[in-house]
């Protein structure tokens, strides 16, 4: 039987394996002992492009019924560490999910900027003796709270970027909108482009990029509505622009027409992040607790 036929015979994905330092060891079926590394890699979730790179870097070893892959090479942390308290929602060898507080950016927006979430994650990696580059998969606005996903090696980064393009990473938000939304649920399908008069502002524009937001009403108040939203696309300020465009700007969102009497920032919180593990394919989710200022705003409305 050829190597190719052997791989087909054992097409089930391998178990997670066991990490040993920079390597992960995977047990193989006896019938695959001695098969070429290129063929053995076809059994793993590693894309051909990365598999070839791994082989060229001598990061693949086949030892009897064990396949060893150098998936966790030591890397220089590429941001100077700035310590701040981090709320880690989920972590394993491939993934880190951090609950971002309001008031800090995910990544520097200008040269030399410090005290972003990237610098805080760098500090966390340093304190936990992890030699890992900072690889954020998506961003959320400076004043928005909620989960941010990080990849902890090149393989996970490749898989998560692919998942983002395929829209298979789901982000669920809670927002406090001004006014009372009449429909219990709906979809806002309006393209978004840059505002010609304001470099950091966005607006609904026929020539903009496609943008789709799904919403459902969670709770109605006298003059506000708590809504849960799911993004089909990930445009800058998408929820803020879309809710403003239908006449219901976020409470506290002065840029898009909201008032700041109830809360001092836009009332937008990433409630859940749902994704599949890049190695095992297992469905995972992380839920971020409602921040104090958002909870206090809801308390005032309910009171």
Automatic annotation (TrEMBL):
Segments for region (Disordered): 187-206
Cite the EC number.
5.4.99.-
Q: Which UniProt keywords apply?
A: Isomerase
All copies of the Pseudouridine synthase RsuA/RluA-like domain together span 96-245
Q: Name one GO molecular function term.
A: catalytic activity, acting on RNA
Kindly identify the residues recorded as the active site.
141
User: Which residues constitute the signal peptide according to the record?
Assistant: none
Classification via Pfam families: PseudoU_synth_2 (PF00849)
| Superkingdom assignment | Bacteria
Catalysed conversion reaction: a uridine in RNA = a pseudouridine in RNA
GO BP, one annotated term: enzyme-directed rRNA pseudouridine synthesis
- Biased composition annotated in UniProt, kind: Basic and acidic residues: 187-197
By sequence similarity, the record places it as follows: Belongs to the pseudouridine synthase RluA family.
Q: What does this protein do?
A: Responsible for synthesis of pseudouridine from uracil.
Q: Report what the protein is called.
A: Pseudouridine synthase
- Species: Cohnella fermenti
